[in-house]
Task: inverse folding
């Protein structure tokens, strides 16, 4: 990389087809560095000052001496920006904090600090009735974060090559009314949203116990970040938290730290998986709140179903728009055999393992019955057929009420009063004390669903890494070529459809017991309340198709953000649409990228990948995006 201690303006690459390192503001490098550090200091100092005189604003920002509420977000953002900047400036002993030596990471973190700070200042003025409600600390914060951002704009930033002048959209700039829009779009295209081609040192040279210590610390920090966000009682604070976390992860990716962590987890795969499971087990103990335990079990149920859909959509490339029906098949099957007095077999009560296997088997049978006559279709035709199946399922269970059809599901009333599970004498519906902690009903079901999620992850990973998994991917890439090479396309697709349906049915058996009842209303294509087929598909696409943790992360975000940002409740589907448009524009491979898909979308930014298995989430060295 070019020596970054020279004047930023002198670092412009003249070849229009090459990458270039160029500042946005022409300042000497020393001045840009000084302004960045001064902005960091001013932003940190402002959080120890009063930002408003009244406690009417959430978080109590009236106290001087220690930060509170959204001030904590500014403090964290400024500290993180400062330490990463010092690493980029090659300060002795801190260079490891920015292994990529890229100033893009500093710019992204500064943007996150600016975003949460100015959002807070504007929100205070808007909610309390004007700028007169701001104390000096708020003005110091606004000026300090702005100075920080301007300073980073003057640093040498890695940019995309300049667009060719004969590009079609540039020609539209000759129209006067479109010139500003074209200029803005051209500027946006030059920004780098992925930084995987920047080399970083290999952390696997560290002592093995030091590697494992880093993994434990990162997972513990992740659990703390999650529980901190859940503990916020106000949507104002959560929005600031969301800004800092989003730009924080993006900035750490640009710094190369996420890429190094991915290398460590690959090197210590069994250990990192074990630590991840322990962190997930610790979740109900760390937050100790039944509401968030309920949200956790809902996320695991939907995430598990999304993993099943990921086999069909992500690995095999089949668009299924009625997948939620298989969740319903499993839920209704479990409800019928679990001892509910509203079941037609009210005297029958299977143990949980038998009910779970029955629900999974019923969903698998339905998957085969639906897939056998339809999977010879392709593309839009298959999508329309699966959409029809989802609607047919909902209509049928609505009509099996003893009036319009046989009495099996009780129609719109559904099957209620499903008994809580008891496993080895442990009643999941009763509160239990574990040392000084209390596990309520939803925490118990969360731990049960976590076990099932681990089983589903193992099945997904083993299937993706197997011969049939490679056949799925071959079908996804080019079915005609795969068939010509001897792959039985119909059988392979039917296997994917059946396995995905089976996993969804397994999750449905737990869902029936968690909700204590099963009704037809949730099993629709789209709706304001998940799960529905559109929600599941959005979780897979947003999180990352073809990956293990991507659909679970997508489900968590789609559940958590509307839950915490209550003003989005009326615009949930609109927000889904905006999120999908942004993810397709900025990171089409999803938040957690499958290496093959990232190589497709960012072929020009990739280098020779490490050897990886097909079911891995993270991308290889040299292709990790921010």
Result:
């Amino acid at each position: 990389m070019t020596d970054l201690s020279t004047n930023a303006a002198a670092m412009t690459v003249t070849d229009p087809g090459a990458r270039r390192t160029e500042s946005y503001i022409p300042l000497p490098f020393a001045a840009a560095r000084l302004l960045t550090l001064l902005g960091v200091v001013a932003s940190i100092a402002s959080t120890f000052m009063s930002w408003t005189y009244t406690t009417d604003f959430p978080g109590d920002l009236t106290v001087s001496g220690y930060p509170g509420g959204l001030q904590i977000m500014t403090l964290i953002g400024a500290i993180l920006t400062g330490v990463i900047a010092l690493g980029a400036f090659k300060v002795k002993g801190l260079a490891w904090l920015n292994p990529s030596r890229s100033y893009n990471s500093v710019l992204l973190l500064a943007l996150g600090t600016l975003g949460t700070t100015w959002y807070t200042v504007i929100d205070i003025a808007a909610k309390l009735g004007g700028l007169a409600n701001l104390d000096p600390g708020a003005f110091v914060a606004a000026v300090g974060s702005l100075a920080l951002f301007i300073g980073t704009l003057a640093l040498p930033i890695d940019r995309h090559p300049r667009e060719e002048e004969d590009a079609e959209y540039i020609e539209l700039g000759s129209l006067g009314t479109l010139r500003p829009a074209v200029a803005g779009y051209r500027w946006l295209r030059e920004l780098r949203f992925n930084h995987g081609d920047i080399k970083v040192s290999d952390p696997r040279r560290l002592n093995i116990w030091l590697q494992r210590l880093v993994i434990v610390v990162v997972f513990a920090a992740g659990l703390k970040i999650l529980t901190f966000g859940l503990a916020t009682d106000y949507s104002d604070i959560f929005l600031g938290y969301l800004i800092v976390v989003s730009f924080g992860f993006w900035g750490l990716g640009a710094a190369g730290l996420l890429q190094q962590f991915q290398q460590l987890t690959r090197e210590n795969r069994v250990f990192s998986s074990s630590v991840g499971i322990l962190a997930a087990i610790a979740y109900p103990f760390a937050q100790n709140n039944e509401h968030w335990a309920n949200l956790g079990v809902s996320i695991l149920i939907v995430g598990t179903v999304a993993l099943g859909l990921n086999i069909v959509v992500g690995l095999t490339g089949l668009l299924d728009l009625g997948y939620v029906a298989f969740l319903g098949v499993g839920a209704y099957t479990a409800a019928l055999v679990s001892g509910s007095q509203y079941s037609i077999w009210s005297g029958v009560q299977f143990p949980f393992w038998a009910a779970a296997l029955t629900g999974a088997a019923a969903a698998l049978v339905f998957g085969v019955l639906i897939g056998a006559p339809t999977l010879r279709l392709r593309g839009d035709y298959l999508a329309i057929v699966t959409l029809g199946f989802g609607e047919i399922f909902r209509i049928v269970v609505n009509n099996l009420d003893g009036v319009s059809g046989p009495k099996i599901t009780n129609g719109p009333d559904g099957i209620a009063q499903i008994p809580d599970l008891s496993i080895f004498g442990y009643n999941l519906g009763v509160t239990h004390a574990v040392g000084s902690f209390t596990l309520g009903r939803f925490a118990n079901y969360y731990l049960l669903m976590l076990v099932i999620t681990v089983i589903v992850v193992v099945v997904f990973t083993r299937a993706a890494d197997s011969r049939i998994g490679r056949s799925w991917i071959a079908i996804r890439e080019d079915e005609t070529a795969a068939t010509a090479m001897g792959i039985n396309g119909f059988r392979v697709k039917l296997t994917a459809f059946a396995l995905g349906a089976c996993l969804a049915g397994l999750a449905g058996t737990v869902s029936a017991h968690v909700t204590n009842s099963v009704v037809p209303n949730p099993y629709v294509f789209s709706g304001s309340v998940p799960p529905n087929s559109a929600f599941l598909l959005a979780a897979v696409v947003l999180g990352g198709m073809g990956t293990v943790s991507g659909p679970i992360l997508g489900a968590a975000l789609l559940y958590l953000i509307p839950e915490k940002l209550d003003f989005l409740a009326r615009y949930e589907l609109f927000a889904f649409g905006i999120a999908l448009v942004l993810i397709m524009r900025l990171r089409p491979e999803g938040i957690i990228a499958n290496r093959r898909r990232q190589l497709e979308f960012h072929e020009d930014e990739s280098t020779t990948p490490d050897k990886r298995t097909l079911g891995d989430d993270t991308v290889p060295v040299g292709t990790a995006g921010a």
About this structure: The beta strands are 20-22, 157-159, 422-423, 426-427, 432-434, 437-439.
